Amino acid sequence: MKNKKTATPHLIPGTNILKNKKGIENRAELDFFERTRTAARMVDLPEGNLSTIHLKKIHAHLLQDVYEWAGKFRNIPTERGQSVFCRPEFIAQEADKITKPIDLSKLKKLEKDGFAKELGEIVGELNVVHPFLDGNGRAIRAYAQKISKKAGYKLNITNIQRDHWNDASIKAFHVDSKALAGILNENLKPLPQVKKLSAVETSKLKREKQALAKSRGII
C-alpha cells in the first residue's frame, strides 16, 4: 500500500494491495491504472466553495474508477514511515479547521510569493490530516489548483515530480512548508486579467448579438 500501514479489511486477502474495483492484485499494475484514470478525470474537476465537502468531491471524482470508498474519509489509523497521520475520528473536524478559514479576498491581494507561501501551508496541513486511505496527494494538489484559480493563479500540477512532492510533504509534516511553497511557486502563473465591461459596453454587446441573431433568422 505504497509504504503505508493499514488495517487488513481494506486489503485483498493475502496481499498488501488495496481492494479495488478491477480486482488488480499487482502493485505496478494498480499504480498504473490509478495514475491513468485519475489523470483522465483531472480535466473536469468538480467546482465548489473550497470546503471540506468540496475536497471530498474532488477525491470522489478522481478515484471513482478505482476504489469503492472514493470521496470517503478513512476509518482506520494510517502512517507512512515515521509520520503518523490524524486519527480517523478527528479527520472531519481537523479538515474543517483548515478549509473554513481560507479567505479568498486575502489570497487575491497577495503577490505570487506570498500566495505560494499561504497555499503551501494549507497543503501541508491537509497532508498532516491525510484524510483519505489513498490518493491524498492527487486530491490535495487538485484542491490546491482550485484554490489557485479562485485566487487568480493557474497551478500546473502535471509538472510536479512525485518524489519532490513527497519529500516536501515530509518536511511540512514537521512544520516546515517552505519546500512545498517553493514547488507550488515554480508552477504558479497569474491568470490573465479579464476586463469587466461597463453598463454601456454590455448594452452595446447585447444589441450586437441580437442583431446578429436576427440576421441569421434565429430571432
- Our count of domains comes out at 1
**Structure classification:** mainly alpha
Largest sheet: 3 strands, antiparallel
Poorly predicted runs of 5 or more residues: none
CATH architecture: Orthogonal Bundle
Q: At the first level of CATH, what is the class?
A: Mainly Alpha
Tell me the radius of gyration: 21 Å
Encode the helix/strand succession as letters: EHHEEHHHHEHHEH
Write the layout of secondary structure elements.
Layout: E1 4-5, H1 27-41, H2 52-63, E2 79-80, E3 83-84, H3 91-99, H4 104-107, H5 112-129, H6 136-151, E4 153-155, H7 162-173, H8 178-186, E5 188-190, H9 199-215
Antiparallel strand pairs: 1-2, 2-3, 4-5
Helix pairs in contact: 2-6, 3-5, 5-6, 5-8, 7-8
Key features of this structure:
219 residues; mainly alpha; Fic-like fold; three-stranded antiparallel beta sheet; two-stranded antiparallel ribbon; 9 helices; 5 strands; 5% strand; globular
Brief characterization of the structure:
The protein is mainly α. It has helices at about 25-40, 50-65, 90-100, 105, 110-130, 135-150, 160-175, 180-185, 200-215, and strands at about 5, 80, 85, 155, 190. α2 (about 50-65) crosses α6 (about 135-150) and α5 (about 110-130) packs antiparallel against α6 (about 135-150).
